[in-house]
Amino acid sequence: MEKRPRSFYVLASFFGLFILFLYGPTLTIAILSFQGPKGGLTFPMNGVSLHWFRDLFEQQAVGDIWGAFRRSLLLGFMVMITTVVGSVMAGLAFRKRFAGSSVLFYLAITSLVIPSILISLGVGLIFNQLGFRVHWATSGFGSQLTWTLPFGLLIMFAVFNRFDKSYEEAARDQGASSWQTIRFVVVPIIAPSLIGVALFGFTLSYDEFARTLLTAGSYNTLPLEIFGMTTNVTTPVIYALGTLTTLFSLGVIGFFLLTFWLIGKRRARFGSDAGKGL
């Protein structure tokens, strides 16, 4: 067996430290969330129990945790659906060059480099000037789209740039209309990419703070609620909330990955059956 060079172990150690740096704070919060009833916010731990998880489901003296969670969940789904639909429509539109397409593209992705707090401030001011109510489902929804749509556009542009148009031509030769071609040919082929866009849209919305800070109005989303709790909650219940929200995020990612795997398995089975038919 070939001996590995010393540089391999140096790089592996560096990568291990990088992973620890990424997930160390999350693991620390998860461990501290299992403190005993008399536990505090720091080490050493005072007992081990599920007390703070149970306390999380009781009436809290401050804040509206579960209301904020429902708002973040609903807002995440709204942003996800809009991002997927908008990205696909833009990807289809940009397949053919038209006057000003380059300018529109760069304008669309410029919001990624503008400080998020300025986007939040600008959207909030626009709603105020137009006489509209600043609310998480309107202004908050709009400000978050400035974050998720550019990512969706970049993904769909890359997908359609390498999309084989011969599939569409074959469908049209068989008498399929434009809508039938998109529904039964294009969408099934790009389905894995749509899952990626949906995952981006939901997760970016679910944990967005800066772009929602000045656009959520009187009702907090979950990130805003957690931030507010850091100023007035002095028990590990906030760690229990962080642990549960992290598990929920991992569950959402796992659901999308499972969906992606099932689609790939179905495609492989379909290809195998088609090969046997030939």
UniProtKB/TrEMBL annotation:
<feature type="transmembrane region" description="Helical">
    <location>
        <begin position="147"/>
        <end position="163"/>
    </location>
</feature>
<dbReference type="Pfam" id="PF00528">
    <property type="entry name" value="BPD_transp_1"/>
</dbReference>
<dbReference type="InterPro" id="IPR000515">
    <property type="entry name" value="MetI-like"/>
</dbReference>
<dbReference type="InterPro" id="IPR051789">
    <property type="entry name" value="Bact_Polyamine_Transport"/>
</dbReference>
<feature type="transmembrane region" description="Helical">
    <location>
        <begin position="73"/>
        <end position="94"/>
    </location>
</feature>
<keyword id="KW-1133">Transmembrane helix</keyword>
<feature type="transmembrane region" description="Helical">
    <location>
        <begin position="237"/>
        <end position="263"/>
    </location>
</feature>
<feature type="transmembrane region" description="Helical">
    <location>
        <begin position="184"/>
        <end position="204"/>
    </location>
</feature>
<keyword id="KW-1003">Cell membrane</keyword>
<dbReference type="GO" id="GO:0055085">
    <property type="term" value="P:transmembrane transport"/>
</dbReference>
<protein>
    <submittedName>
        <fullName>Putative spermidine/putrescine transport system permease protein</fullName>
    </submittedName>
</protein>
<feature type="transmembrane region" description="Helical">
    <location>
        <begin position="7"/>
        <end position="34"/>
    </location>
</feature>
<keyword id="KW-0812">Transmembrane</keyword>
<keyword id="KW-0472">Membrane</keyword>
<feature type="domain" description="ABC transmembrane type-1">
    <location>
        <begin position="69"/>
        <end position="256"/>
    </location>
</feature>
<dbReference type="GO" id="GO:0005886">
    <property type="term" value="C:plasma membrane"/>
</dbReference>
<feature type="transmembrane region" description="Helical">
    <location>
        <begin position="103"/>
        <end position="127"/>
    </location>
</feature>
<keyword id="KW-0813">Transport</keyword>
<comment type="similarity">
    <text>Belongs to the binding-protein-dependent transport system permease family. CysTW subfamily.</text>
</comment>
<dbReference type="InterPro" id="IPR035906">
    <property type="entry name" value="MetI-like_sf"/>
</dbReference>
